[in-house]
C-alpha cells in the first residue's frame, strides 16, 4: 500500500477548485506547481483562508475519529474488522491528490503494508523515522527539510529503500495510530524542485510518486457490512441519499493481485526453463511491472513474459499451460535437443528483458571515488525493474605489496556464483560456509599494477565485500564443474530459511536479512537429470514439477538435497 501507490485516480478535488493547492500527485504537475508562486500551504505553518481551514479541521477530525474507532475495535479484540476499516481508510488517504512530502522509514512501511494485507499478524510498532536522521536530529519532534543541502538526514538515503514519502493526511493518520516519529517533512515553499528534489550527490531524495519504477498493485478495497453500518451510525445527520452515494463510491474489487499456481507443460527438455520461470513468477514486483509494459514489437522477451503472465493470471489453479513462445525464442541459445542449464537460462532471460527496457549497454569499468557514487551512476543508467530488483554491488579491495595502498573497484552484480566448499566428512555443506569461502580475503595469482605507485604486483591480496544489497538475492551453487573434469557435485547444501549476509557486507550496509523465496533443484546426473522448483503463490509454498504442481505440505523447500539456485528476498 505505501510501497505501491503509483497509480492514483485523477480526482477533481475541491482544493484544486479553490485554486490554492493545485498540486497533483504525479511528478509533472507537482514539479510544475512548485514553480508557481501559489504553493500548497503546510499544516504546521500559516493556513491560507477560512474555507481551507474548515476543510482541514474537518479532515483532521475525520482522521481522529477513524483512529479512535480502529483502536476501540482492536482493544475489544475485533482485529479483523479493525484491519478492514484501517485498510480501506488508509488506501483512500493515500489516493488523495496531495503532494507526498512526509517521510516514513521503509521497513516500517513494508511491515505496515504486510500487516494490512494480513501477511503478518503483529500490530506495527511505533514509527521509527529516527533511523533516517543524523544522531543530533533523531531526538527532535519535527524535522523540516528545507534545502538541497539539508544535513539533518543521513547521507545516502534512497527512496523505496530507506524511506517512502506520503501525503499529509496519510502521515497524520499513521502517526496518530502508531505514534513514534519524528515528523520529517519537506518544506515545499522553500523548494525549487527538479523531479529529483534534492541531489547533493550523497543523499538522493526523490519524490515517491516521481519514481517511474514504482512497486505497484491494485489494492483490494474491501468494505464490510459492519463498516457500511458504521458509516451510517457515525453520521446521523446525513440524509439517506448521501449515505447511499457514500457507500456506492467505494469500489469493491475482488481481483486477485497474485498469480494462481499453474503448471508449465514440458514437450521435451524444458524443465530448466519451467523451473526458472516458476521462481520468477513468484516475484510480485516483477509481475506488476512487466504487466504494465506497453506492447512494443522490439521488446520480444518482455512481451513474451507478459503474455505468459496474462495466461497464468487467467488460468485455473492447478491447470497447466504451454510456454511455447518463450521456448521458440530461446532456440538459438538453448538447443531443444539437450538438457540446458536453469541458471544460464535465468540470467539470459533477465538480461534480455533488461536490455529491452533500457537499451543495450556495454558495461565499462570506470573509476569512482566511492561505492555509493559508482552505484548511483550505475542505477541512473539502468532504471529498469530487473536492476531495481536483482542488482547489487560488490567492492573488491586490492592491497599493493609495495606501497600498502588499498585500491577499490566496484562492480554491479545480478547473482553470486558460489563454489561448493568441499569437506571430506561429513558430506554436508552449509550455504553460509560457501559464502564465507567466497568472501574471504585471498591471495590471487593475478598481475596487477598499482595506480598509486605503479608497482606491478605479481600476486595480489584481494577482499570482496557487498556494498549494495539486492532486493532479491540469487545464489547459484556451482554444482556443475568442468575442471578438473566435467562432473556434478551431488552433496547436499544446507540453506537457512532466514539468511543474514551482514558479515559479507561493508559496515554501513543496513538491510542484510533475507528470507527464502524460491529454490530450483536439480536431480540426477550431469547429462540428463531433471529440474523442479519450489516457489510461493499467495503465501503458500508449492512444488513445481513441469505440469504438475503440488502443495509443499512437508516443507521440502527448506531442505531439498538438489538445491541448485536459491532465491532470497530482502526483509
Ligand atoms: Zn602501490
Automatic annotation (TrEMBL):
InterPro entries named among the record's database cross-references: Pept_C19_DUSP (IPR006615), Peptidase_C19_UCH (IPR001394), Ub_carboxyl-term_hydrolase (IPR050185), USP (IPR028889), USP_CS (IPR018200)
Concerning CDD domains, the annotation shows: Peptidase_C19R
Question: Which GO BP terms apply?
Answer: protein deubiquitination
What GO terms are given for molecular function?
cysteine-type deubiquitinase activity
Q: Which Pfam families match?
A: DUSP (PF06337), UCH (PF00443)
Tell me the segments the record calls region Disordered: 6-34
PROSITE patterns in alphabetical order: DUSP, USP_2, USP_3
User: Per the database record, which ranges form the DUSP domain?
Assistant: 81-190
Domain (USP): residue spans on this chain: 262-571
Protein name (database record)? Ubiquitinyl hydrolase 1
Q: Which organism is it from?
A: Paramecium pentaurelia
Upper taxonomic classification of the species?
Answer: Eukaryota, Sar, Alveolata, Ciliophora, Intramacronucleata
